[in-house]
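Hi everyone, sorry if this is the wrong subforum. Our group has a chain we'd like a structural model of before ordering constructs, and none of us has done structure prediction before. Sequence below.
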Amino acid sequence: MTVLAWGRTFQVRMKKREIDVRLPYLVSSASGSFVEYRCFCHATNKLERFRIYKGFTKLAGVQLQDHAKKLIAYYSKKLQAGWRPWDDENVIYQDEIEYNAVAKGFGNKKNDSNHLRRWISDFLNFKKSEVAKKTFQDYTSKLRQFTLWLEKNKYDDLLIADITNDIIIKFFNYLIQTRQLDKATVKKYRQVLYAMFAYFQTKKLIKELPMNNLPKAIKRKDVAARPFFDKHIKKYLECVSKEDPQLFLASMFQFFLLCRPGQELRLLKIQDVDIQRQTVYINTVSAKKSESRRIAMPNALVEICEACNLLKAPGHFYLFTKEGVPGEIPVGKNYFNNHFRAFRIKLGLPDTYKFYSFKHTGAGKLMESGATLAELMNQLGHTRFESTIHYVRRHFGERSEKVMNLRPEFLKGII
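Answer:
Right subforum, don't worry. Here is the predicted structure as tokens:
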């Protein structure tokens, strides 16, 4: 592979942070040519790679060089101005617009109503009003990868109706065999593509879904958070309660409320905590399924809140901030995870524990206290009983008194 060094690394200041950018450069190989650039993404904490394959298929020599120069100049200017590929809400469709602007000067948009990017963008616009922001970003990311794969494999000129089941199978083989993605990730791709093609079916763009007999991935890794052992959670809480009171409070909120540690926890405000009625309000913006709910607040958590004197702050203040006291700017997405990890390492606790472990541990303790599955379902915020059953089986296994009390006669005198 030959890389023409038209790109260079530089830094721009954006929101008072240094962000690494690798400016666009042309890459030519036996399999084809494309323009590549890289941007540091704080969400993944690494330099992400982006490639532009569009327009190179039938070009060679001077024409290929000229096309590459136009793309490089256009994207270099945008990147130096502070733009990032994830800034655009409809990034897939916007990329198509940007390509045409480069390829044709100030030319018009492509008018083909069946064009892949146009309809994928249309589906994303439809989905945006239905799902939470994080879910929408996941849809966008996976459909971007699907679109780039289609373009790289020269399927980009197809109409929606021309995407066959065989093409979809090839894409999933690419995810499983080439990218070595985990079973859970491949399953998410399947769900996203199924939803998209079902949407195309309602629009009468296709007659049937091209999603039959798709290959299945294997489970490559287990990164699920495990519930705490009592001795470990006690050791952690004794230390954190003294050294980081805010992290201690956040840990207890997740343990007792069984709320999700992402937006549901970090976006809590003082006004959401109702000590008198012993409830915590999760609004539609923060909730995973965009549905507000009230969570019962155990007496122990009420006592912890009262001891912290947190509720004396203004109601619109966020409960958790970088300053460690209620304020107007909430902590970031990875704040709890990073701070928990630091204490876990300091205390020598197993790496199977994640900040999410407090939710699982709280659910286990609630079951041990005699709570019914219906009560557990309500506290977890599940909308389906099956979800709660699956949750219990996954994290705690089947609970049976007969199994737990099994003690055969032949063990007498031995144990």
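For your construct planning: The longest strand covers residues 17-29. Residues 1-87 form one domain.
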